[in-house]
Write the structure tokens for this entry.
Amino acid sequence: MENFNGRKIPKKAEIQSKINEAASIFKNTKGLSQVNVSYDFDNYIIKLSCNFQNIENINTGLNNLKAKKIIVKSVPTHLYSNSTEKKVFNRLHINTYKNDYNQLSKADKEVFNNAKYTSVIQFENAIKSQTNAEYALAPSKKALKIEGNILDFILQKKFLQNTIYLY
Amino acid sequence: MNHLYKLVSAALLFFHFFVLAQNPVQKPSNTFFYMEVNGKQLDKKINWEKINPFLHEIEKNDKKKMNWNDYSKTGIDYTATQYHHAVRNDSVTSYTVHFTINNIKQFLDFMNSYKKDGQVIGQKNNYSYVDINDKTFVAWNKQKAVLKHIYYKKLLKEEAVEADSAVAVSVDSAAAKGYNDELPNEETAVKKPFNYKEEIQYLKEEIDYFKNNIKQNQKEIAELRKTIKHLEKYRKYPKGKDPYQEEEKPETDENSTESEEAQPPAEEEDADLQKELEAEKIENFKIVRSLSEKYFDQYFSNEYKTDINARMLSGKDANADVFIYSNFQNLFKNEMYGKLSSLYKVQNMFAEAYNSDSFYNIYFDQDKVKLIHDYQHRNAEMQKNLAKLYKGKRNRKLASLVHDQSIGFMSININSRQYFDALYDMFKGDDDENQEIGMFIETMKIVLDEKAISELAPGNGIFILNDFKKKKVTYTDYEYDAEHNEKEVEKTKEVSVPDFTFAFATKNESYWLRVFDAMLRHKYFGKNLTKYGNIYSFKDEKSKSVDKMFFTVKDEIVYFTTSIENLNTEKSTGTVKNAKESTKHALYGEIDFQKIFQQFEEEVKDSKDKKSFDYVKKNIGTIIYKTDAKDESIQTEMIYKLRNSESENSLMCFFDMFKELYKEEMKKEEKFQ
């Protein structure tokens, strides 16, 4: 299949080339290490994983991707902030995609109907409190998880931003 | 969503509203589409009592109050024939509709509701006119009206290469702060001077992306064009819109070739560009309005007399509800393949392929919709060879493979030997002087042994969709433990895979057996191939769709099938009426969509989707397709047979189905708002 809903579907080689380029940029971003990429073209699951010294290194990495036009300008890059002294971790507010979604055709909107979003944040220290109750706290109090239909986040029924206070 | 339905309803309205009396209309020679709608017949088939409330339902969210409340009373004579045509030249594409008025008061109410608020109706000597929007114009007198939609695209000149160099804008080293010091290449890349030309190229690529992918994103395209104009003029991004702002520190005066003082304030730049864009828009509007007026003047001052092209009407059946003519040769030659063909010297082939007239007659009967398409190539020799191609021999063995439970099938009975003559004609075209093409054809004739090739497959074949079978496939999912650690898990699900048979006749069995034996010994294919007696079996457990295939050659037939049982022709009753019919036509196909929908029932889980799905499943019918060579054309007849229809006729059946699906879609829209 070359197209879907009138949009060009990238070839496997194009996807690999783009992701490899992204991985290379991450590898060259200060504070990011152990950058790994895995492809599963049977299920179309593509993973880009890395370790970071400070969570802000991820923001820098994403900014570098934007500068190299790997991701488009509308993708948010300032996602996290962390204060080790105050022991506060912030998942920052990002712009809504509601208007972009509303402008899509019916066929394109349907793509999102059954899509899920899951995000997990794990810490070395236990969590004292958080401001967003949608995040489920693990029994050890060292991990948080938020999940839902992607439309819950696009249509702002659920929010990602959270301020987490650590011990 | 609502816009989509409005568009469809508008199309339905135009389809019915815009009509013309006895006089044929002007149709320039570069008309690629022409349509006549038989208003007299269609008016009897439309039930306004059903349509009116539905159209009001669609319109109910509009703030604008309409001056009339009955769509059947717009002042337009529905019983007259409608005439539509589309014309294209280098920079202008237009679509024109002509119609007759039988109640000028009602028509004025109709126009007053559609035109923009405050828009003044212009007056000329013999007609009135108004613009509905920037591209659509309507003109009328007491008897006639014309709607013209014009799209004008200014032809772009080759961009002159500017002699002056790009502005060097240095990037503060702090911008590369996040980069590893050991990696000079990345540093260099970040420090690369800003090149406005590269940036323009990048933004143009982005426009292509939006054009290809997001049709509705006109706003974004306009914004990017505006930015391009800014970059062309000021060689930098507008203030506040610089995508690299986060990485760059403010430029120092010594590193910048353009001082800040030389730059106008951001608001001024914005206003200048806005002015330019507005001027361009006004210029385009003036051009399309002038073209419309020229057409209206000509039409209304010429007593609606026109230069009718008899060729376009030669395929018309007076009993059809709708007649359409099309010839896309110029469109394809000049627009789509123009550059390609000039590069590869194959312009004749493309020109020849599209140098044809197509006539479509559509009939909305009580229990079916019938479309008859006549294809006539303008090159008589080519048409003769095409007709020979479509006159193949019958083959009853293939038809016997179809059985009562088959979902659908498509058969072909052509003369494959004639294919080569048609192909040579296409390459050759009318250009006898083109020696390169002549040489190429001669070489092809020497290299190809057409007789031997046509014996491999003389032209009889059939594809039968027998059934859909359930198959378990594995997929990867992610689960999380109590501590939210991610775990990759393999799950299984059932999917429907097609069970089909493809068979074709051959006069050279041994060739195909040698091919299959060679595949058996092949390093790559051989791994999945085995042979049982005369049957070759291919298995690929990893495949998610067709995981096994059987093929063999028997009694001058080559078979490919997904199930070995399909090779047992004895189980076929051979009494399926339309299967026998298939032997009589060059192409014949039949498909029962209800049977297909039944196969995918379990895969529709959302209750809202299920309602629509069940409705379509209950009412969707069968399509029958046949093609044959007639005296002067290749004729294709396509019939859609209605099922469980309680509607007045097939036209209203489509309307009822559309209305039902619209209702369900509106409910879904509410859910996701």
Summary: Helices of chain A lie at 12-27, 56-67, 98-102, 106-112, 150-154. The interface with chain B takes residues 6-8, 25, 28-31, 40, 42-43, 45, 57, 60-61, 63-64, 66-69, 72-73, 77, 103-106, 109, 113-114, 118, 120, 122, 136, 138-140, 142-145, 151, 155 of chain A (CB under 8 Å).
